Prior knowledge:
The complex is a heterotrimer.
Chain A: E1 5-16, E2 19-30, E3 34-39, H1 45-52, E4 60-65, E5 68-69, H2 74-80, E6 81-84, H3 96-106, H4 111-125, H5 140-152, E7 158-162, H6 170-185, E8 189-194, H7 197-200, E9 205-210, E10 213-218, H8 220-227, H9 232-240
Helix pairs in contact in A: 3-4, 5-6, 8-9
Chain B: H1 2-17, H2 22-36, E1 47-53, H3 58-69, E2 73-75, H4 82-90, E3 96-100, H5 104-109, E4 113-121, H6 125-153, E5 163-171, H7 178-209, H8 211-216, H9 222-252, H10 260-283, H11 288-304, H12 317-323, H13 327-341, H14 349-369
Helix pairs in contact in B: 1-9, 2-7, 2-9, 7-9, 7-10, 7-11, 7-13, 9-10, 10-13, 10-14, 13-14
Chain C: H1 2-17, H2 19-39, E1 47-53, H3 58-69, E2 73-78, H4 84-91, E3 96-100, H5 104-111, E4 113-121, H6 125-149, E5 155-163, H7 170-201, H8 203-209, H9 214-242, H10 252-276, H11 280-290, H12 292-298, H13 310-315, H14 320-334, H15 338-367
Helix pairs in contact in C: 1-9, 2-7, 2-9, 7-9, 7-10, 7-11, 7-14, 9-10, 10-11, 10-14, 10-15, 14-15
Amino acid sequence: MKDNKVIAVKNLTKRFGDFLAVDAISFEVKAGEIFGFLGANGAGKTTAMKMLIGISKPSSGEAMVAGFDVYTQTELIKKNIGYMSQKFALYDDLTVRENITFFGGIYGLSRATIKEKVKVLVTELKLENIIDQLVGALPLGWKQKLSFSVSLLHDPKIVFLDEPTGGVDPITRRQFWEMIYHAADKGTTLFVTTHYMDEAEYCDKVSIMVNGKIEAMGPPKLLKERYGAGNLNEVFLKLARGSKPNE
Amino acid sequence: MKTIGYLIQKEFKQIFRNKGMLPIIFILPIVQLLILSNAATYEVKDIKFGYIDVDRSSTSRALIEKFRSSAYFNLLAPYSSYKVAYAGMLQGKVNVIMEIPNNFERQLVNQEKTSLGLTVDAIDGAAAGVETAYIQQIVQEFNQGIALETSVSNKNRSGFAGLITIIPSYWYNSTLDYKTFMVPGILVLLVTMITLFLSGMNIVREKEIGTLEQINVTPIKKSQFIIGKLFPFWIIGLGLLTIGLVLAKLIFDIPLLGSLGTLYFYTAIYILVVLGIGLFISNFTETQQQAMFIAWFFMVIFILMSGLFTPIESMPQWAQVITTFNPIRYFVEVVRMVMLKGAGFSDILPQIWKTLAYAVLVNGLAVLSYKKVN
Amino acid sequence: MKRFIGFVKKEFYHIYRDKRSLFILFGMPIAQILLFGFAITNEINKVEIAILDQAKDATTIEIINKMATSKYFSINRYLAAESEVEGVFKEGKVKAVINFEKDFGEKMVKRGQATIQLVADATDPNTANSITNYILSIVQQYNQSINLHQVGGPQVLTQTHMAFNPELKSVFMFVPGVMTIILMLVSAMMTSISIAKEKELGTMEILLVSPLKPFQVILGKVVPYILLSIINAIIIVLLSIFIFKMPVQGSLILLGAESVLFILTSLSLGILISTIAKTQQTAMMISLMGLMLPVILLSGFIFPIGSMPLPLQIISNIIPAKWFILIIKGIMLKGVGMAFIWKETIILIGMTLFFIGISTYKYKIRLE
Lengths: 247, 374, 368
């Protein structure tokens, strides 16, 4: 990885019968970047992401994640990435501590490391009062923050976040993005799908997917200039209507 | 190994934290074992016996008395007519109607043959057969009585021909106590139901909630995941068997002629088969609802074709072939052989091999069909 | 009303789109009734018995012949000594040994009396019991036949009429039972799970804040399943009539009405279960673990209720399936009308109202 690329995708395609869910997309993500993977619902974001994290087999094309091939080395990929799914995926019937211990254990962390992690998280996220509460009883914002923390437990190189802030209030979203920045500062690469265009402004680089294809890619500032738009939302609307960039 | 440990720990926590499920897993089966084992008998007794005595003679009364003194019959008040008695049968209040004709005594006194009219509610054909046999037996004894009486006055006859009696003796269960047979059998069913339903639902439940996807992106190996998932249910199955055996001994005083070790050895393999089937169902379903319908379908077939309630030998040939694919059949056979006949390890070897092969096959298929990637 | 119809439609779409469940709902009951209708019988059929004939005279040979030609037994083994019995039983194939004493014929001639020893493998006491009974009735017939040949002498004979099932087909006994079990479990399970599912997913709350009244929500969820169960019931009845040659002596309309009543009872039991259960898992375990064995064992489906210990006979009264089995047998086999089954019908109606009442009560408590 001398060129510093942690994700390299070329012509990646996923076909369900006649339907092209992901149509030959290509992009690269550098280490430590926050990469915003944008698109409307049904544009193919989640499908593309599932191929990258090794739970869906591509129909064709190439992709390397953390230096490993998505066809043959999915288990190695999994050791090096974290994932926070759209559906809330911690166990409601376990406590916060038990969830952390369980996922830490699954990733092969030692008991001592897990204890240490719990301690760090308790202070960082101010969890003193809720560490031994059942996750099911927590408000959604807390659950999202915990989910993210759990996906970072094993210090992965890349974390994939699928619509991480769906349904939470603006303040929590703000806090959530602070956590994302914090992780990026430590050198973690973040791959975030979202359809909140204001959030996309926080990313180092974004790609915008329409009907399975990546229609535009680059730093938010550059895209706004190229499409002559005041914000990313306008860029997005223009793309969705099928307009071409201003030459 | 350590990873599996975390998984097992998590599963146990989830099971024991679910206060709604605990009684269903542990108490419901035990209560059913204690109560339902008493229900499973084909013994025919307390036959509701209605009669119409048109003759009203001392002989007819003597015949009725014979029925009254039999332990099998529960004599109802005499009916005035066949019509009334038959209406009673339609309502299910009478099982058997006996009509004594009005020239009953006269014909016998005249050394003639006379005939009783019997109507048997034959919807349960097997019970009807038994009831008829009991009646015949009493009539036979009655005939013998008449023959003895008349042979005194009628020297022409040399005794009474054709009196062959049967002396039955029952091995392994001399009092024909059906509970010794049913308690182990029902225990087998309960262990199977609990382990099949729990394992069949478990993975599909995580699929439905979405946590399975989270697990799938972790580096955990397929085999680790599956072992970690199934092990707790294996333990629960064996635990349930233990509780059941203790109660069987304490409450029903069920004999255990064979070795407990053999029984546990076999059960340990057997539960693997059930868990494999559960996992297999989990793999091919999307929702808990689907998983449960399929588990239910197989469970009903397994139960009714296990030879526990109805004998396998009586089934048509093709159905008997189907029962060879029924794991419960083997478990029922083994429990019966080990507990009641005192069979040893070598006696149940055929069942062990078949079950082991089944376990390997089902679990192999289940592991192969479990996909982390789709 | 319009809103309500819209809601029912939504429920139909749910069911109709889930092809797998649909297949299970219709395919499995059919498969089960076909399988069990043919396979389940409590009468014994070609059971292997062995003969130990130490007399070998005309009488024993005649009796053995009678046993061999009966449909209940098949005789392949002839033993030479009593010591062989144990080995034969350990093998497991032979279920009983018939032992004729050495002086059997002699006793017959001299005293007119002789005994046959029947040794049965009683590990399955039910089978042992049946074998004894069938052997008994064969010998009894033989006894009667000798007596018939004797000229003169007083003699009581019997003329037996096997009512409702002259050929003693066990299908007549079991098809109503299988039908009941399938309807009961499918209906109760389907409703309890589908309501628990909405609760678990949180969509129930969305439905409850809608302008629909709570009972409309529940009714809307149940209506599609009523229709599905009715279709199931029709298929099962057709199979019983055309495949198993079950007669319908009574009114087909009454049978239909009673089936709908029983479906309602089962569905309301399903609703009750769903008010108790928080998750689908609990709902399923209650309806499967809680209903399956009690319904099979205490409904009179396989085992006659009259032979059970008294406490169980009392408990069996709370099993709705028991009453429905009585009703089906009454209508199909006995050809009775409402005059004979009104009691059972009222009990089922009462149970349905009771289940609905408790559910409503539980439900109100939760809202407050």
